[in-house]
Amino acid sequence: MNTIKNILAVSALAMGIAMPVSSFAQATMDQGKMNMSQASDSMTDGEVKKIDADNGKITLKHGDIKNLDMPGMTMVFTVRDKGQLAKLKPGDKVQFVVVQEGGKMVVTDIQSMR
Ligand SMILES: [Cu+2]
Hints:
Elements: H1 2-41, E1 44-52, E2 57-62, E3 73-79, E4 93-101, E5 104-112
Bound molecules: copper (II) ion.
Signal peptide: 1-25
Keywords: Signal
Protein name: Cu and Ag efflux protein CusF
């Protein structure tokens, strides 16, 4: 009898400890997922500096890229869809979406603000 009581007490205790931990882990994970999906959709402001349509590259002076934790700077991006470069020219104000893919920054969407 005592053994069963002890087991019950121990498992109740273990559950009391385990529950908050797992619900905390769950909440953290959900938040992580939420942040990621929000981040991948977030547009970054920028200004076109240079376009290399043949190689699908664009030089952008960009604002803070929240999803990549990158402060504003001027840098070269690879554009996934080269066709999107056709309607842009240096000096254009743009909004773009950039993701990190295999260590490379890839612009998945870019739109002129005109
Ligand atoms: Cu940058």
